[in-house]
Amino acid sequence: MDSRINGHTKLFCLIGSPVGHSGSPAMYNYSFERVGIDAAYLAFDIPLEKLDEGVAALKTLGVGGFNVTMPDKTAVTKLLDDISPAAKLIGACNTVTVSPDGKLTGYNTDGIGFVRNLAEHGVKVAGQKNVLLGAGG
Predict the structure, then answer these.
(1) Which residues are catalytic?
(2) Could you give the CA distance from residue 98 to residue 66 in angstroms, rounded to a whole number?
(3) What b/e sequence results for 75-98 when a residue is b if at least 16 CB atoms lie within 10 Å of its CB, and e otherwise?
(4) Distance CA 93, CA 84 (A)
(5) What pLDDT digit, counting tens, does each position of 66-101 carry?
(6) Distance, CA of 126 to CA of 99 (rounded, Å)
(7) Which pTM value belongs to this model?
(8) Distance CA 18, CA 46 (A)
(9) Do residues 66 and 58 lie in contact, with contact meaning Cβ atoms separated by under 8 Å?
């Protein structure tokens, strides 16, 4: 039993299907513990047909926020109170914050994360013609 979990511990999570392979719980829980944040991160397998129920449950539980993976990234946008300009442009959310009053705001960090990684490895994208091929979300 994790002795750092208590009645004040904030819950964050990953939703999608499948999620059993995800390294996110290990990464986030390590980070929370390392920097002293009273939070826990779990993964919940929520298939697309149960997404509305799952998001409503997370809101009811008062989670601090959640990440979204396939196949739920596009459909979740319809269940949120607001979405960022990047998420609107992309048409999908991979991160949702939950405010204390229960407002759900969606973001998409995939694009900025991808471009930042390229920059950190010396790849310049500004002013270039770029082609991105793949089957990701």
Answers:
(1) 73
(2) 8
(3) bbbebbeebeebbeebebbbbbbb
(4) 9
(5) 999 999 999 999 999 999 999 999 899 999 999 999
(6) 34
(7) 0.84
(8) 8
(9) yes
